[in-house]
Amino acid sequence: MQDLNEAVDLLKEGGVGVLPTDTLYGLVGSALVPETVERIYELKRRDGRKPLIVLISHIDELEQFGIVCSEELMVRLNTYWPGRYSIILPAIDDQFDYLSRNTGTIAFRMPDKEDLLEILSQTGPLVAPSANIDGNSPAKTAEEARKYFGTDADFYIDGGELGGKPSTVLELDGEKVRVIRP
Fold it and tell me: Quick check: 2 pLDDT over 70?
């Protein structure tokens, strides 16, 4: 297991690793580096049509993805964030097709976990699917994650045993809120 500073440096360089999120252990990498995102799809053996959730440390980071927040949208997002809600928003910029996977949307979450927010403030937005091979149970410990990815992940941060559930995924559509994943 590496230390956090080492992990942050590796993430800034486009590395991929495992760390505890606010829900489960995540296989994380920079959301702004397409090659890193593709590497995560390969490691997880994930269906390339299924988008990943992007973790952010502050609402202002949405601008990096071409999302302009109206006052109304800011108020709505602040009712869910920080928290266990991943919010699907329209992806306006084609350069992020590698994240939207041709859905025209990207899901974002601002976690309610101080140490994770601190990591995100240093690394920038991270994709963070659960740490497992697609179709298998999410890792509850860093050691379980290591069994899935071995030396293919650049680092593992041990946060003890996590028994959380995946985030609730919501789509905001005008005044309506659709629950995509409870």
Answer: no
